[in-house]
Design brief:
5 strands; Rossmann fold; 53% helix; five-stranded parallel beta sheet; single chain; alpha/beta; 159 residues; globular; PIN-like_prokaryotic
Length: 159
Amino acid sequence: MDIVLDSSSIINLINGEVFYSIFSLKNFYFKIGPLVKEECEKHNELDDAIAKELLELLPDVSLQQFKLLKGKYNLGDGETECIINCMNNFSFYLSCDDSKARRDAAKEVSEERVKGTLFLLREMRIQNLLDCDGTIDRLQLMKSKGGFLPNKGKAYFCK
């Protein structure tokens, strides 16, 4: 599964101390665009992950397409870039934790292709990269550091 990460997901993953753990997910390939990278410039983890070829840096999106989508939804630059990358690549899924951006992305690429950090945490649990309590601890850590994430418990993560 090809996942385009938005800055909201990246920041939550870093804050939850699981950013590097996502790269151990089997059959998952992570990508970011230049605008998202710029939004997260204070996080050295991105440059490190790109240098280690764990994270793919995508090319710039079309300026015309960017202006059209930005005008349509009035989202942030990184969110707009992520949606365009998913629109242009039908195998790409979006990981975003901003509720408005998720709703707007679903209109453009389908709800099925819009994911978030909780999906990635659950996948880490399913693939035994985290145990049940560890998954919930990571979520609580993200929230304690400012992540606006829904309350999910063992029923969601630990089936």
